[in-house]
C-alpha cells in the first residue's frame, strides 16, 4: 500500500515537474560556477562507499571529469534508483550519472546522453542449476534489484517468470545467498565479485542478457547541456579515457565499436 | 570491489545515528508545540475550533508520512522553492508527530474526571486557569507513557527520510550493505543502535513517571 502511494505521489510530482520551466541549461551552470550531479551511493561499482566511507566509483569519476570539462565546481548529491529521475525532473540537480540505462519510457521524463560506459547484465545461479539458458526456466524464483535495467530486461523477456524484486543488489544478493530465491539477475561484475569472495557459492551465468550501456540523464528542455554532455562523451570515448575508467571499475574495456545516440 | 565490514563502518553508523536523534528531537519539539495548540483546540467548548482540529488531525493521520515527505521535498521545488532534505524531513515529521501527539494528549486531557473541571470552576477559576493549574498537570502524568511510546515509534519511522536522500541510521546501513554485502553484521549493528536509543528512552520515561507519582 505504502509503495503504491509513493509510486503514485512520485509519478504525479514528476509529471508536474516536467511542466515547470527548466533552469539548468549550460549557461546557467556556467554562471552559477557549480554543476550539481546526482550519483548513487549504493550501486557498486558505479557509486558506493570505500573503507573511509567516502563516495567512490565509476559514476563519481565521470562526474569529476564533467565538472573539470565544464571548468566549474562539482556538487555531488546522492540519488537512489527510486528518486534519480524525480531529482532531475524537479531541477534539484543538473545531471544524473547513476548507472542508468536508457529506455523509451524513462525518456518521456528526462533526456539521455550518449552512453559513457556499459555493463554486462544477466541471470546467474548455482553451478549445478541444470539451466543452460532462459528457455529452460521453470518456476524458479529470481531475485533482482527493483527498477534496474536487468529487472526491465528480465520482465520483458520472461513476463511469466517468478521474479522477486528487492531494493538493491546487496539485498537481492542476500536473498539469493540465504536461499530465499533460487536465481539472481545482476551485473556480471557483481556476480564475479561475489563468487571470488565465496567460491563455495560461486555464481555461474545462465544467460547474459546484453551489454547494457549507461547514460547521463539530463533534464528535459536543456538542449545545450545535452549537446555538451554528448560532445564530452564522444571526445572521451575517442581518447580512451572512458574505456580506461570502465576497465578500472568494471574489469573490462569498452568494445571498439561502442554505440552512440 | 566488495570490501569487509570493519570498525570504521561502525563509526560511520554512529555518526549517522546523530541525524536520527536530531531529526527525532527536532520533530518531537516542533510537533509537540503544534500538538499542544491542536489538542487544546480539540477540547475547548467552541465548535469551529474543534472542527478545525479534527480536520487537521484526520488529514495528517489519513495520509502516509512517506507521501508527505515527497510532497515537501519534491512538491515545493516544482514552484521554484528549493527545500533541502533536512528541512523537508523536519517539516514532514513535525506535522506527522503533531497530529498523533495532539490525539494522545487530547485523550489525556479528557481522561481527567469531569468533577475536576466542575470543582475548579466552583473555585472561581477561568477556563484557561482551570486548564493550566488543574487539568494539564494531571493529564501530563497520564500522558507520559503513550507519548514516549509514540516517540519510540517516531525514532524508528525517521528511517523513511532515506527516500529523499537523508542519510540517517537506516540509510547509512543500506549504503554500507551495498559496499560490503554483509547484511547480517550491518543490520544487527543498526538494530542494536536503535535498541539502545529506544530502550534508554523507555527507561527515562519509567523513571519520570515514578518521580511524578511521588507528588501525589
UniProtKB/TrEMBL annotation, chain A:
It comes from the Bacteria. It holds the Pfam family SBP_bac_3. Residues 34-253 form the Solute-binding protein family 3/N-terminal domain. The keyword ATP-binding does not apply. The keyword GTP-binding does not apply. Keywords: Signal. Residues 1-24 form the signal peptide. This is Transporter substrate-binding domain-containing protein. It comes from Psychromarinibacter sediminicola.
UniProtKB/TrEMBL annotation, chain B:
The keyword Cell membrane applies. GO terms for biological process: amino acid transport. It is a multi-pass membrane protein. PROSITE patterns: ABC_TM1. InterPro entries: AA_ABC_transptr_permease_3TM (IPR010065), ArtM/GltK/GlnP/TcyL/YhdX-like (IPR043429), MetI-like (IPR000515), MetI-like_sf (IPR035906). One of its GO terms (molecular function) is transmembrane transporter activity. The chain crosses the membrane at residues 20-44, 56-79, 85-105, 179-201. Belongs to the binding-protein-dependent transport system permease family. HisMQ subfamily. PANTHER family: BLR6398 PROTEIN, MEMBRANE COMPONENT OF AMINO ACID ABC TRANSPORTER. This is Amino acid ABC transporter permease. It comes from Psychromarinibacter sediminicola.
